[in-house]
Specification:
Chain lengths: ~375, ~150
């Protein structure tokens, strides 16, 4: 599994973050030792960063269960209390919105933090989140946005056909401090009807403060969680690790691994899925079915598009933006993930559409003059 | 059928959780945050289970050793503070036998001495509290208790 470590920092947890994750997740004295190692390796006076901060309630919960005595426990308890309050307030504030959309006839699927907190952690403090993510069927998006505007949400301009094709969600705000992500594609890693259908076919009910909505069932939720984490970010994504482990701990027996890998293969996501599962297996002794272990050790040959896309997604984004040419490579890699064909002419045709969209041009006829103007600026 | 007066938690906007022996209560409408310990936790738990005021006080004096008039007086003040802060309301329900034994009221061992009176500690204005860095701006006992030298922004 050490192939994972070839990828850059800010994709995998640092040594300190791994200690903290172990303090949060291991079930015995190893957790306390990991916490001591974490404390020894960090400067408490420095900024810990949001990814670390929002892991601390889980650390406190685990250490308390293990009877740990540490001078820092008072502050950890404080972090726990604070996130408990934040999530209680967030859910209370968002309830009228959920009721309004549902009464308006919109099918609502809650994503990420809210269903994880309610169904899998069973605790308001253990899964901090800064906003609510919900998904609607793409055909119901105009209705959903109109309903949101009715109750004072700023949904921005209506999405264009290209936005619906190349984006996955709309960020909405209210009163400056309330935020909501409305997904019209369930995952940013599957901006196509087949992926949406796959997710929507694997949902179950969720009681959200007395309102029945949808949440992803374990197989789809595991895919969503791991793929969301397997993406380079300036702040290392670590939240996916306890989330995925919690899904597997609570409902691992309900995961349909064959369906999961069939989806990943069809969407060219199997390398990232395997990387995530491999990491959990290596660092958290996750026991996986034999067939899954076989897939991790003998991956399918990846397509050229998956290799190009992952080359960008899994590596430091800033490096690609240092040079105008490599910046354009990012756009090409993005399109490799979006394209639904390997045939040359349809691929190039689609790519020219995507370039026009990303460069904000009025038509594809402007592409060549834009390229020439760019070259002229740099050469002359 | 005879009726008895009880207290009901003002849900859904009043939420609470017992965290390592400390009861945390939050008013989601006002943004006020409350902390309750020891005997206050006992009284809240009895209240949540539908005990009337007389039943709560009987259970309290049954469990704790101390000066009974003082215990009752302090407990009544505590219940009044819960009502004044809109955390609970009075309600009438059909009188039934109180099936709660004192040791069933809380899910943890009880002290046998009435060592500290029940107190409702109030932290007002959640928006200010949330601005505090929960590691660096905070005293040893943790958020929401700010360091004395650093008031909320």
């Amino acid at each position: 599994m050490s192939v994972q470590l070839r990828h850059s920092v800010h994709l995998w947890p640092s040594a300190e973050q791994l200690h903290l994750l172990q303090a949060a997740l291991l079930a015995d004295d190893k957790a306390i030792r990991a916490f001591c190692d974490w404390r020894a390796g960090i400067d408490l006076d420095a900024e810990l960063g949001y990814p670390v901060l929002r892991l601390l309630p889980l650390v406190y919960h685990n250490l308390l269960r293990l009877g740990a005595k540490d001078p820092l426990m008072g502050r950890l308890k404080g972090v726990y209390r604070r996130f408990w309050c934040e999530n209680q307030q967030l859910f209370f504030d968002v309830l009228p919105l959920v009721q309004h959309l549902q009464q308006g006839g919109v099918d609502l699927l809650l994503l990420k933090g809210a269903p994880l907190a309610l169904t899998y952690y069973g605790n308001y403090a253990l899964r901090p989140m800064s906003d609510i993510d919900l998904a609607v069927r793409i055909g119901q998006l105009p209705k959903a946005l109109a309903l949101l505007r009715e109750i004072g949400w700023d949904t921005g301009p209506d999405p264009s056909a290209d936005d619906l094709r190349y984006q996955h969600a709309i960020g909405c705000v209210r009163n400056l401090n309330q935020r909501l992500d409305v997904h019209f594609h369930i995952s940013r890693d599957g901006l196509n009807a087949a992926a949406d259908t796959w997710f929507w076919e694997d949902v179950e009910t969720l009681d959200f403060q007395g309102v029945m909505v949808w949440q992803l069932a374990p197989t789809a939720l595991l895919a969503h969680t791991i793929l969301h984490g397997m993406r380079w970010n300036e702040e290392t994504p670590i939240r996916w690790i306890p989330d995925a482990l919690m899904i597997l701990k609570q409902r691992g027996g309900d995961v349909d691994w064959q369906r999961l890998f069939a989806f990943a293969d069809a969407q060219r996501l199997s390398q990232r899925l395997a990387l995530g599962l491999g990491y959990l297996s290596e660092h958290f002794a996750l026991e996986l079915p034999e067939a899954v272990v076989g897939r991790l050790h003998n991956p399918l040959r990846r397509s050229w598009r998956e290799r190009i896309e992952n080359g960008v997604i899994l590596s430091e984004r800033g490096r690609w933006y240092e040079h105008p040419l490599t910046k354009q490579w990012v756009i090409f890699a993005e399109y490799c993930g979006l394209a639904d064909t390997d045939s040359l002419l349809p691929f190039l045709n689609g790519y020219s559409h995507y370039l026009r969209y990303r460069w904000r041009l009025r038509g594809r006829l402007e592409i060549l003059p834009t390229v020439l103007a760019g070259l002229w600026r740099r050469l002359v | 059928m005879e009726q008895k007066g009880i207290f009901k938690v003002n849900s859904p906007y009043i939420v609470s959780e017992l965290i390592d022996g400390e009861l945390v209560i939050m008013n989601l409408k006002s943004g006020n945050y409350y902390s309750v310990r020891d005997t206050g936790v006992f009284l809240w738990s009895a209240l949540e289970k539908g005990c009337s005021q007389d039943e709560m006080l009987a259970l309290l004096t049954d469990v704790y050793n101390g000066d009974i008039p003082s215990m009752i007086g302090q407990s009544l003040l505590f219940i009044k503070s819960l009502l004044d802060n809109d955390l609970v309301s009075q309600a009438m329900v059909a009188q039934g036998p109180n099936t709660w034994a004192a040791d069933q009221i809380m899910g943890q061992p009880l002290l046998d001495k009435f060592t500290s009176p029940p107190v409702l500690e109030v932290f007002s204005d959640m928006q200010d509290l949330l601005l505090l860095d929960p590691i660096h701006d905070i005293a040893e006992q943790g958020w929401p208790v700010a360091k004395p030298s650093r008031p909320a922004e």
